[in-house]
Amino acid sequence: MKCMSRLIPVLLLSALSFTACVKGPEGGNKKVKGSGPVRIGFSMDTLKEERWQRDKASVEQRCKEVGAECEVQVANGDDAVQTKQCDNLLTKGVDVLIVAPHNGQIAASIVEAAHRQGVPVISYDRLIRNADVDLYVSHQVVKIGQMQAQYALDHVAKGNYVLIGGSQTDNNALLLMDGQMSVLQPAIDRGDIKIVAKQFAREWLASEALRITEDALTKNNNDIQAIVASNDGTAGGAISALPPQLVGKVLVTGQDASLDAVQRIVEGKQTMTIYKPIQPLALSAVDSAIKLARGEKIDAKDKINNGKNDVPSILQEPIVLDKNKVMQTVIKDGYHKLEDVYKNVPKDQWPQQE
After folding, report:
1. Domain limits at 284?
2. Can you give the CATH number for the domain in which 237 is found?
3. How far out from the chain centre does Cα 239 lie?
4. Whole-number Cα distances in Å, 315 to 149, 171, 305
5. Less Cβ around it within 10 Å: N or C end of the chain?
6. CA angle, 53 as apex, 50 and 54 as ends, to 5°?
7. What is the mean pLDDT of residues 156-162?
8. Alpha carbon of 146 to those of 100, 124, 151: distances in Å?
9. Cα separation of 211 and 341, whole Å?
10. Same-domain check for residues 68 and 162
11. Is the confidence at residue 24, as pLDDT, over 80?
């Protein structure tokens, strides 16, 4: 796929460890004077997945803690709505925009509109493409794809693989697939594994993942050993397509550590997920927004190329979570409660909580 191959070399810049000083839009004159409250507009694509509900709550909580005003707008997967909502936030006079874009390409117009008013823009979790984004805060997306694929290879070294990506309008979906393929390609070349299906799931829909998996099972007479699903929603859809005798036998990856996924993991239905603590991500976004609004410098240790610029980036570290790591990750952090995670497991099989 041309767009993915084009992305790989520029994204390797994320591995470089250097510090960039972030200032905000050139020529911008909308800086908050003194110590008055900063007004933050948070434009979100969706609240459909559990993780995005956590993002919203964490951003709002951090704004309260630091005395910033925050208004959240949710576009529900509609680019035109997201663009209009951001225009509305700018009209209301926000000092900085945090944008989790539905479509990373189309959201470039949001950056342009904000900069015309001297308002800096932080790209949140998903990278806004081909625009002068002031800062990108996210997790190490390519690395997540690599971690998913490496886990699969470490546990299923040979066999037929199904790859299920996310929405092609989400730049992260492309990066994840890049990361996965960078790990899997040598095994493909050796003939150890065969990719029997490789498709993107429209809008990250579980129903799309179900369809892709059903089709792959039919075409390969149920001879599937691993499903590299890019997030927990697509993992759930893939698992629902598996016949009972294959559930727990076919390795299935995921991402987000959503409650239903972690429940599937302790039940033995899903093999692993990637845990991305949301609080550090939200905290870095809000704290950086305040600094940008006040014209203060931000130290960003990484840079990611978005097709136009090397965008200063703050990237959080992802964590592999499987059945053996539930207690020391999501339970220990209070991300999920033990009784919620293990509710479908007989109580005498619950682990002891320290």
Report:
1. 2-133+277-316
2. 3.40.50.2300
3. 21
4. 20, 15, 13
5. C
6. 90
7. 98
8. 23, 21, 8
9. 27
10. no
11. no
